[in-house]
Amino acid sequence: MKRCIVVAAAALLTAAGLLTSAPPASAGCLYGGAFISKCDDPVQPDGTWQRCVGVARWVPSGFSTHLVPEKHCGPMGPGQPPGDPAFTDPPTHID
């Protein structure tokens, strides 16, 4: 019985350690403002990465309208052409 309790406690402490050392759910993303989300993929060996921005788009629906999320993605990093400032701000990778 004591052995089961010790094993269960060790498993619980191990799981708690993994959860507290994990990155936050928002790692690599910004939320709010003029966009729903702005997230960066990992940096590639050539120094570039892909950024995806989620925006809300109005869609007519009968006598009403509703908002639909829309995702736009594009390359970022060295050697990439400058783009829309709303898309490229910040110009560095979001960590």
From TrEMBL:
Location of the CDGP domain: 28-95
Signal peptide (UniProt feature, chain positions): 1-27
Region (Disordered): 70-95
Keywords of the record: Signal
Entries under Pfam families matching the protein: CDGP
Transmembrane parts of this sequence: none
Protein known as: CDGP domain-containing protein
Species the sequence originates in: Mycolicibacterium chubuense (strain NBB4) (Mycobacterium chubuense)
